[in-house]
Design brief:
The structure is a homodimer of 295-residue chains. In chain A, helix 1 runs parallel beside helix 7 and helix 13 crosses helix 14. Chain A folds into two domains: 161 residues, NAD(P)-binding Rossmann-like Domain (Rossmann fold), CATH 3.40.50; 120 residues, N-(1-d-carboxylethyl)-l-norvaline Dehydrogenase, domain 2 (Orthogonal Bundle). Chain A starts with a strand and ends in a 6-residue tail after the last helix. The model of chain A has no long low-confidence stretch (mean pLDDT 97). Chain A is an alpha/beta fold and 295 residues long. The radius of gyration of chain A is 20 Å and the shape is elongated. The first copy, chain A, has 14 helices and nine strands. In chain A, strands 1, 2, 3, 4, 5, 6, 7, 8 and 9 form a nine-stranded mixed sheet that branches. At the A-B interface, strand 9, helix 9, helix 10, helix 11 and helix 12 of A face strand 9, helix 9, helix 10, helix 11 and helix 12 of B.
Chain lengths: 295, 295
């Protein structure tokens, strides 16, 4: 517990994750663009800072979990950013789902200052963040990972070292690519069942336990049937993630037509104002397309 | 056990399913187009018949599980078929994955002879057939289902009554539609991981236990990584099933672009001679398309 920790980004995910480190006895410096989101953590003993640079000046390990890759870049590499305040031997851990190529640039930038970096995106959503049961997929140097691991263990239950800088982000991209097409299957199978006159919950009872089973059909499929399209995981963030995956795939000369199709339908969800629904809101795009008012 | 049972179609699925009814103490009449596939069942006490009509003449309940809808139609509705030999009060149970509309025609044809029909496709594959652990999705009259249920229970562990004639087949279509897009997600997420330089089994370890998890990634994804493309479930049969689902969807004025995309890639698998691989053989279509020799 002798290490001083910094935390930047105290939103729906970041606040409970940061809270677990506080509960674990670490001394914490925190910053968030909207200052009021740090107040509860400050009451619990964290020190508020004026910006990313100040957080870095006070810390041995700086965690970031913000919105978009542009935010990651600004907060870490930008003017007044983490790198400017970084001490020799310190570590940056970016837990935002972001670009693998940006993770590599952050790694290089940290090393140029005698510091190190990890990319460590998570899955498990706000529930996993609160429960400390996140999956954490980590890229960077193995020794750095080993040093940060005790902190990851306060936040997650499935901590995986995946390889060099960017490997954590790449793993998260595989996760999102898998979900992208699975969600189309969920929505289409339920719409088919609806049009065919089957009872949707009875259909999920049968198909949700065999070779067609998935977390998506058994959790998000059930929510669709209940008419619950709340996030969960926002459509606007999923569109961001799929965009990153498509860009990276294009860079690697990899054609992924299923991902591209799913991305297009989720972009359509954005176009008709569904960006703040959960990913299961995709069903609205498909039901509208098929002239179905309500299931 | 006073009911006499007929069984038509003793292939990889049908033979063990029929065997469970024999073991359950039923008196069985059997027929298969290739006669040698009934020999083992005959040794165990079943009576060989010369054709579907003779099976029906000897039986109170006639089960069929054959290849394609054209086979179902020939065996049940064709010349020398089941309907010609059906007694008043008998029941036809078609367990082939086949067309919902054909299931309705069989139901009508049976009723015109004072008999009844159920459509009862299964999922769980050859392993489920051998273990008696199939999921069985049943359409038809509820009273008829109740009467046949003790026989289903010898073959399956998840027996679901879904609604009127065709509802069982429709449920199986929902199952296949869900698998169709999920398989694209599996193949694309693994190809992305491969190109990104991640270890594929380590990636499945992480993404296979959270919001991206599915039976397909944890079973067929692992087989892809091992280079095991054996069936499981044949690509040629999956192409048949998706074709039925697309036809039915078109009849219902339902656009399913994800299913259509998956169908096209599986047709491509047929085009390049992969029809006898398991459905995980889809990875070959996507790896060839991306100039990847081997993962």
């Amino acid at each position: 517990m002798d290490k001083k920790i910094g935390w930047i980004g105290t939103g729906v995910m970041g606040a409970p994750m940061c809270g677990h480190l506080l509960d674990g006895g670490y001394s914490m410096s925190v910053y968030n663009r909207s200052e009021e989101k740090t107040r509860d953590l400050v009451k619990r003993g964290a020190t508020a800072c004026s910006g990313p640079k100040e957080v870095a000046q006070n810390s041995d390990v700086v965690f970031t979990i913000v919105g978009y890759p542009s935010d990651v870049e600004a907060v870490i590499l930008g003017e007044g950013g983490v790198v400017e305040g970084l001490s020799n031997g310190a570590t940056i851990v970016d837990m935002t789902t972001s670009e693998p190529s940006l993770a590599k640039r952050i790694d290089e930038s940290a090393k140029s200052k005698g510091a190190t970096a990890l990319d460590a995106p998570v899955s498990g959503g706000d529930v996993g963040a609160r429960d400390g049961s996140l999956a954490i997929m980590v890229g960077g140097d193995r020794k750095v990972f080993d040093a940060v691991r005790p902190m990851f263990e306060l936040m997650g239950s499935n901590i995986a070292y995946m390889g060099p800088a960017g490997a954590g982000q790449h793993t998260k991209m595989s996760n999102q690519i898998l979900i992208a097409s699975t969600m189309i299957g969920v929505v289409e199978s339920l719409l088919y069942a609806f049009k065919a006159g089957n009872d949707l919950n009875e259909v999920i009872d049968v198909i949700g336990s065999g070779a067609a089973s998935s977390w998506s059909i058994n959790n998000l499929g059930r929510r669709i049937v209940k008419g619950d399209l709340n996030p969960g995981f926002f459509i606007k963030h999923f569109v961001k993630d799929m965009g990153i995956a498509l860009d990276e795939a294009r860079r690697m000369n990899l054609a992924l037509p299923g991902l591209a199709l799913s991305h297009q339908f989720y972009v359509s969800a954005m176009a008709v104002g569904l960006e703040n629904l959960g990913t299961q809101g995709l069903y609205k795009v498909f039901s509208n397309m098929n002239g179905i008012d309500d299931m």
